[in-house]
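Entry for the shared binder. Reason: the reviewer on the internal report wants the predicted structure included alongside the sequence.
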Amino acid sequence: MQMSYAIRCAFYQLLLAALMLVAMLQLLYLSLLSGLHGQEEQDQYFEFFPPSPRSVDQVKAQLRTALASGGVLDASGDYRVYRGLLKTTMDPNDVILATHASVDNLLHLSGLLERWEGPLSVSVFAATKEEAQLATVLAYALSSHCPDMRARVAMHLVCPSRYEAAVPDPREPGEFALLRSCQEVFDKLARVAQPGINYALGTNVSYPNNLLRNLAREGANYALVIDVDMVPSEGLWRGLREMLDQSNQWGGTALVVPAFEIRRARRMPMSKTELLQLYQVGEVRPFYYGLCTPCQAPTNYSRWVNLPEESLLRPAYVVPWQDPWEPFYVAGGKVPTFDERFRQYGFNRISQACELHVAGFDFEVLNEGFLVHKGFKEALKFHPQKEAENQHNKILYRQFKQELKAKYPSSPRRC
């Protein structure tokens, strides 16, 4: 009887152990299955949102290294360039939003980060020694308190060649040392900055807009180069990524993003539906409408606003380039650089669009995406003292068009 009881106990113990083993194997299987599914989800996520392995200390170290280098002089010798104060890793097939600003106008970065989900590159111009110091301290503060800046933003600095940007001392970074959050950094910048027009800096230093544009888009395959006080439509980056990933047919094509301007910047439209509602009541109008209508007219706004609503971003129609069209566009491959001889105001973007045309690029207008400039641009708001430089750029543009004939002797296209 005792033998039979012992056998039964051993049998039940063996059965229990077998059941536990089966349960453990099932848990292991489910865990592996969940892990594989999770990895698939993670892979899809990181396809659009690559991880940033950099810590705050690593970013600060990079900033210090960039500043300690002393920078390099540009081709003219008039400006000192510091590359990579902040860096971001980027998929080579990604679309980067490239922009430029004086230190005071960096306030607009916060809004760009909200609308643009992908990598962003900004070139900052500091016209004085004090602004160069503010720019370095600001980069230090942003790298410390803004995870989004560390993950997605590259920042470069340009200042007059007679100045050198200082490496900020963490013990004496001024009032920025008291800040504890990203919002506090931008709030502090709002209090110390005097936002204005980039090319009206109140100094005898010319704003090197084309140098800054080239620096911001340097190393990018596809880039959308805009002014810092413009805002893209919601989802534009994702739509561009999906469209470009589905086909490699976009080489030699400039994908034009229609640009508008809004009377009151408090209500920035997110979708085309919202934009058109404001457009119909006169709160939104084509970019440069009151300043240089021909500079944007070839976009054919009347055709664009009447396109049927679609869910997918795609090119809607082809537009032949004509002088003085200066569209905002996305293009990859061997895109001509901006001619850095053009500074301040006048012909700086037109010249690059002209060369893009002569180099063989075609212009196709996108159906859904758009840009909105904060505020109406009016002729009276431009500074008369800059007229001399505008005339200089006008003469330079004539020379530039003649140079293109020698640069592209086999091209049938001319500006």
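Summary line for the report: The chain has two domains: 54-228, 233-414.
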